[in-house]
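Can't paste images in this forum, so I'm doing it all in text. The chain is below; anyone willing to post the predicted structure tokens underneath?
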Amino acid sequence: MFRHASHYQPRDMRHLVALPTETNTNMMMRFDGRLGFPGGFVDTRDTSLEEGLKRELQEELGPALTTVEVSVEDYRSSQVREYPQKCVTHFYIKELKLEEIERIEAEAVNAKDHGLEVMGLVRVPLYTLRDGVGGLPAFLCNNFIGNSKSQLLYALRSLKLLRENQIQEVLKASHKLHY
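Text version of the structure:
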């Protein structure tokens, strides 16, 4: 039997009229030192994946999420994993205004799980420094939980935040840092 988990990426909409460096993509630093997206396992008491995600977001990101409604329209993908446990992860992306993201970031310290499960929010650097490795290539060398790194890359591709050739260059540079 597979467990289900839903994860969420807040993203502001300024990329539509600005450079990608002005787009914000957030992840969280977990208690185990790994990066991931807010969310978690759906409980039997949750009436839907979205309801489970909403509950998890409020626990991990706090009261600012009560005004953000994640719906089935925000669903993007699902992945099946067999290891370390059988799980189906469902990925959602919600477009928010920068002010909403900043409010969530500021109020996240008041979340029930802050300092326990969630150590803080991290903005993903959607750029590469002139040295060719700083920024996103170095960020991708972090330790990610489960499939959150592939979810991040999927989001960058599907939302067209970076062109495919840019993503390939970033991945190539990040692999050089590993060796």
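The domain at 3-178 is CATH 3.90.79.10 (Nucleoside Triphosphate Pyrophosphohydrolase). DSSP finds five helices and seven strands in the chain.
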